[in-house]
Design brief:
Layout lengths: L1 H16 L65 E4 L2 E4 L2 E4 L4 H12 L4 E2 L3 E2 L3 H6 L6 E8 L6 E7 L12 E8 L8 E2 L9 H7 L5 E6 L2 E9 L7 E5 L10 E5 L5
Parallel strand pairs: 1-9
Antiparallel strand pairs: 1-2, 2-3, 4-6, 5-6, 6-7, 7-8, 8-13, 10-11, 11-12, 12-13
């Protein structure tokens, strides 16, 4: 008995003397590890060198060549202006003077080109002094103003009336006819179609509508010619020629109604 007790004591002693792991203890002791991490702080100092940029703009000097433009001065004189005759009136340079135009204004416009009139009858009784100078003109009064053109033997006569006409009622003084005759000097007026004293009847036919052109014997001489273009009671062109063939020459140009014999 004493032997068994002694053995148990010895075993107990041995068990107590063994390490806990060896004794199979399941208790785990975790050692806490404290880790201190020290971050090194790095300070980077960057010093920028001051940069000075100098921009030099190239200076461009442009020299413009001076251009002098000389405009030829154009002066229009009376000699440069033309007087043209038509079946409805007179073109005096830039001014259109139709039948029915005021007498004083027409005289002024023509005088600016042709110079002062060579003759001005003033207003005359158509049946007395007027009849003696211009033939049978409309009643009651007539005025005639003429210019020497194209030399001493050339003339342009304008006639005015205060009679009742296709252009104005009675009592108004106005332009109603013209008569041009004389030489074939280049200074003579022409028609708007270029027909002047000395132009041939062939030229006349080429310039105007043949359907409105009549060429026949002159009433005062069968050997002479008479021509008319679009003749109306108060308007139209008409005149005389050296004959009736294309080769014969125009000797006069009249417009409007005119005065009879």
């Amino acid at each position: 008995m004493r032997v068994r007790v002694a053995l148990l004591v010895a075993v107990a002693f041995l068990v107590a003397a063994c390490s806990p792991d060896e004794a199979g203890d399941t208790s785990t002791s975790t050692a806490e590890t404290s880790t201190t991490s020290t971050h090194a702080t790095t300070t980077t100092s960057t010093t920028l060198a001051p940069t000075t940029t100098t921009s030099t703009a190239a200076t461009t000097t442009t020299t413009l060549a001076a251009t002098t433009t000389t405009v030829a001065s154009t002066t229009t004189t009376a000699a440069d202006l033309e007087v043209e005759l038509s079946d409805e009136g007179i073109q005096a340079g830039p001014d259109w003077l139709p039948f029915g135009h005021d007498d004083d204004d027409l005289v002024a416009k023509l005088s600016a080109i042709l110079g002062p009139p060579a003759f001005d009858s003033g207003w005359l009784d158509s049946q007395t002094d007027g009849w003696q100078q211009f033939g049978v003109c409309p009643d009651p009064n007539v005025r005639g103003v003429s210019w020497d053109v194209g030399g001493a033997d050339g003339s342009l006569l304008t006639l005015f009336t205060d009679a009742d006409s296709d252009f104005w009622t009675g009592g108004v003084q106005h332009f109603f006819a013209f008569s041009h005759g004389g030489s074939s000097d280049p200074g003579n007026p022409t028609t708007t179609e270029g027909i002047g004293i000395g132009s041939s009847l062939g030229d006349l036919k080429a310039a105007y509508d043949p359907a409105k052109l009549v060429i026949e014997e002159a009433w005062f001489d069968p050997a002479q010619g008479a021509w008319s273009y679009d003749a109306q009671d108060w308007t139209g062109l008409w005149g005389f020629a050296t004959g009736q063939t294309d080769a014969h020459a125009v000797t006069s140009i009249n417009g409007g109604r005119g005065c009879g014999e």
